[in-house]
Queue: 2 jobs
Job 1
Amino acid sequence: MPMPPDSVDLHTHTRHSDGLDTPAELVVKAARQGVRRLAVTDHDTLTALPEARASGAACGVEVLTGIELSVQHGDFNDIHLLGYFFDSEDAALNACLARLKEGRTQRGLEILHRVNRRLSDLGRAPLDSRRVQQYASGVLTRPHLAQALVDQSYCKGHQEAFRDFLIPCNAPKPLLSLEEGLRLIADAGGVCSLAHPGTLSTDPNVLDPLLAAAKSLGLAGLEVYHRAHHPDTTPFFEAVALRHHLVPTGGSDYHGRPTGPTLGEIAPGYPVPGAALHDLQRFAASRKSD
Ligand SMILES: [Zn+2]
Ligand SMILES: [Zn+2]
């Protein structure tokens, strides 16, 4: 099915976080798919933006400034906030992202240390930290360590590596609070949409207090259109967004995986609604004129 002329995608990843494509590859693919406006929303980093913007200028795709921040609130330890329209050069935002990266680097090394202690208790040779670092192009994460354990023949697959080593040897992830994440993006001139709410809960008794709190802290949108809750619970989330006066947004959450979604679509034949971007822009403009 051809893409509509106002085709957008408000949620995509590159290899600067957990996607597979370079920023330029992502943008070229978007152009080929007919996506004209593309938000690059890597996890907790803005480093893909310069290359994505340059590539967008060359192939006629408007690259929108974006990010996906992991935050916590109450019992929720992995809420994802999509930030848009902020100043990507904002000093406080960049300083905070640098601190988070340092925290995640330390976490990776701590988990490696714990895994090696466990291996030594089992009478096995430790993982070589320099070799393990080669699995990661940025921060060392648990999937990298799982691959190292598999390659050393200590585990048959990632599932076993997580069960026997990475879950028992886990160390806490450094996280911003919901309030800090929302304030950081607002102070940099942007707005946030709460990503894939269906991965948090589909129980109104759980979602309503969370969204009421987030709305009071400045949340602008709710990612109603996402493959995690398409099509079964999309009407449910449309109603939730309406109830909390949140702009319904959407995106493919494309990671470049061969079996994953197509850019600009929630599911085959279901393009991301172009109104999502217009409504969010209107909301951001009204906030600025307040
Ligand atoms: Zn996410
Ligand atoms: Zn994502």
Job 2
Amino acid sequence: MKAQSDNLVEAALETLKASTLRVTEPRRALLRLLAEAEKPLSCEEIRARSEGEFDLVTVYRNMEVFREQNIVQTILLESGKQLFELTVEGDHHHHIICRSCHRTLRLELCFGGELERYASSRGFKQLEHKIEVFGLCETCSED
Ligand SMILES: [Zn+2]
Ligand SMILES: [Zn+2]
């Protein structure tokens, strides 16, 4: 597990270097924090876990940079808030997300192909899809 998070951080750093973006110590720390997280995190959660090292603006700005470089995948919650998860190129998956505690299950299966084929048959081009399933996890739905 440790080795896997190291690999994710290394891959992300390589992407930053390849794009001529500077690999700063804060960026390195933020990538590590994301890699070691057990679930996708909001900017507020990232800030909280950094133990005061980063303010919210710094977290937002860097997540925006990471998103542009496709280092992170974002999950848009029903509230409009975004969660961030480290990803590598070509890694395509979906999530089931608890709308209360943000516990997240990764879905390795994808139904998007069928939807995109349909969109294509209706003349749409440059297709992409985002599919997330929201619900209440077992813990959060207990009375
Ligand atoms: Zn929950
Ligand atoms: Zn998909």
